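[User] At your convenience, examine this fold.
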Amino acid sequence: MTREFTTPPASAEPLAAPPSRTNRGLLICGALAGPVFVVTVAAQALTRDGFDLRRHPISLLTLGTLGWIQMSAFIVAGLLTAAYAIGLRRVLHPGPAGSWTPPLMGVFGLGLIVGGAFRPDPALGFPPGTPKGNADPMSWHGIVHAVAPPLAFAALVLACLVIVRRAVMLRQLGWATYSAATGVVALVLVAWPGQDGLSMRLAVAVTLAFAWTTMLAFRLLPPAG
C-alpha cells in the first residue's frame, strides 16, 4: 500500500499544530474582531449626534445614551481577540513566533476589554452639552481607560515585529514588509507629538492594526475539510 503526499501551496503558512475545527474557529474569531470593531465605529461616527472624528477620539463613543454600543464593540472585539490569542498558541507553538505572538495578542485583547469596561470622562464637548476641554481632574475609571489602550497598542506593535521575524525566517518577504510597515506606521501615528489631528491618527492606526490581525488570521487558517 502506498501513501500519497500533497505539497501545500507556496502561499500557505506552515503550521506547528495540525488543522482542526477548534483551531479554525479560534482563528476565525481573530478574523472577525477587526471588522466588528471598525464597522461599529464607522457607523457611529457617521450617525452619533455631535460626534466628529476629526476632534473626538473613538473612546468617547462609549459615552451618552448610546454609549453601550461602543462599550459592547470594545468588549466583543476584546473577547474575540483573546480567543484568537489561544488559537495562535495552538497553531504557532512551538514554531517561529509561537512563544511571543499569542501572549502579546492576548494583552491586546485584554486592553480592548478594559477599554470597554472602564469609560473615559466626557471631554471636548462630547456628549453634547459637556465641557469643551479635557476632564480635570480625571476620574479613576477615566485613568484606567487612558492607560489600557496604549499598553494594548504597544503589545500589538510588538506582535507585528515578532511576526516580521517569523516571516523573514520563512522567506515570506512580502508579508514581512507588510507586517513591519503596519507596526511602524501605527506606532508613528499614535506617538507623533502634538494634539492636532490626534483622533484621526488614532482611528487610522486602529484600522491598520485590525486589518493586520485579520490578514494574519486568514494566512494561518488551515484549509477546511
